[in-house]
Amino acid sequence: MVSDKSSEQTDSSMPDWSAYRGVLIVVEQRDGEVKKVSWQLLGEGKKLAQKLEAPLMALVIGDGVAHLAEEAVHYGADRVYLCEAPELRTYRTRPYSRVCLKLIEEAKPEIVLFGATATGRDLAGAIATHLPTGLTADTTQLDVEPPPSRLLLASRPAFSEKMMATILCKQYRPQMATARAGVFQALPKDTARTGEIVRIEAGMREEEIAAQVLDFLHETGKINLEEAEIIVSGGRGLGGPDGFAPLAELAAALGGVVGASRAAVDAGWIGHEHQVGQTGATVRPKLYFAIGISGAVQHTVGMSNADVVVAINKDEKASIFQFAHYGIVGDLFKIVPAITAEIKKRRTLFGMPLPGADSPAAGAEAAAEGSVSQEVNMAAQERSEAR
Amino acid sequence: MLHIVVCIKQVPDSREIRIDPKNNTLIRQGVPSIVNFYDMHGLEEALRIKDEHGARVTVVTMGPPPAEKGLKECISLGADEAVLVTDRGFAGADTLATSYVVATTISKIAETWGPVDLVFCGKQTLDGDTGQVGPGVACRLDLEQLTYVNQVVNVDEVKRKVRVHRLLEDGVEVVETSMPVLITALKELNKVRRATLPGMIRAARYKPVVWTTADFPNLERAKIGLKGSPTIVSKTWVPEVKAVKTQMITYDTAEGAAASLAEQLWEQDLPARLGWIS
After folding, report:
1. pLDDT tens across A308-318, in order?
2. What is the pTM of this model?
3. The complex's ipTM?
């Protein structure tokens, strides 16, 4: 994987791909609610499209999702392809890949990007094989070479995040990649922006589709770390599963979610779904607390892109402080509850409603894990049902 | 009787790979080679279905001759046959070229031991981390595809249906589809069994079936190995650690520390950035 193979193929052998122009983002949604990564990809796609002097396109697939086509324009798309049909209500590999393949054939984008979610990876893997073309998984950096080469430089972590690799697809079009959630920035929503919305036909009838989605269970203890804006993580320094209780309270006061280092997960103190870092989630929250976490590279690869990092550790030499904007050396069992109280006080004082009332759903909902207040749990439940 | 194929890959345990700080290269020495652990959960599920329904379980891997070791491990757990597809021509394959060879091999397995009803793959490998070979194989063999499966609820031999739970970012999807189907396994799928003594004895004596390009007369040379791989690695580097200016908070009491931290965060306009105030 790591050897330089590019010398094997020379540019002179490049086929003529001039019919392929523009960047296509495949938008992911559930029940008409978009996955944030889709708008993040439109933001990044815009940069690529501008360098290529080509249009930014989006593909919205579902049932009753016309509003998302308009939103895609507001988030930067020049042209949105909209495919609505009852049989496309929930994602299924075959009908969705049929729509994508048909569109790729007709619209001929030179780059197609998907979120590196379960759905995005499922779909992209099928499409790339069918076309066929190259597909780079889980990218965290995207760039293009300016015309005439127009090559997508798709970079991704390799070897458990210890290295980065840039991957090219010279011989085939479109160039495809899945990209991680929370890495790229969405553009500010501009409702004044206008663009073209093109309706396209679904390619399959229900009778032709074997897969039947029987049920979807929201909120199964799985938390969405990747999209969380505030994460309060704990590690070995917590000393045991009970150590997470004050962290959950701080997370609830902030409207955030609870994360953990591999040490805490491996010790069985908290579930793997909370793990940040290597073999866990790569996160990019606005505020990250690392509490009782030493700061091993296995953890920091997953959180070093947080906007603001606060580290609390009893060991002043802990390497986590090298990644922290603010450091507090001391007893976490005294300091964390004090911060929780201070945050609550300030939120009340400055008229910022506490989570559980009407704060952004994502945080409070995901915080509903064990030791968080009943109130938060119920609010999350209501929102869950409302969807 | 059901015929289940399990795809495995022998990988360096990338969790053990370190970077040499002197020259920023990978230290591969002493890194153990293991069967990609997601694949083992695929094997375990195949063996559970075998225990419950009766099935033939065939394991396949594409790799260099030492990959035989992983196949023997699968035999020791209860797989019936193991196939090693190995050829210098396969070297340098990306996911597209790999899925071509694996799919072609599964077709040959079906010709040799009977039609295949279920294929298991791991959700991704530890060394590649792409999760693309499973969907690639499903696409090439025109199989139904169920990725990220954390529970196989039911296998109905008569109706030829499989019902599973797929663990997604935002919940669990219950989905049913028809066989033949390819399933990619999460580690939550099951707990992998240990080898029994008779299993180990069988594995020690077992010689995997070895196929090379010569065994696939119709294999298209342009689709295998480096030549059949559209993606190329043009550059690798070790990411630099971002230098962060750390402000240590000095304090007398925990309350004082909390107040001081909050003061700093408020100065950074955090409430507005977090959307607490408009």
Report:
1. 999 999 999 99
2. 0.83
3. 0.90
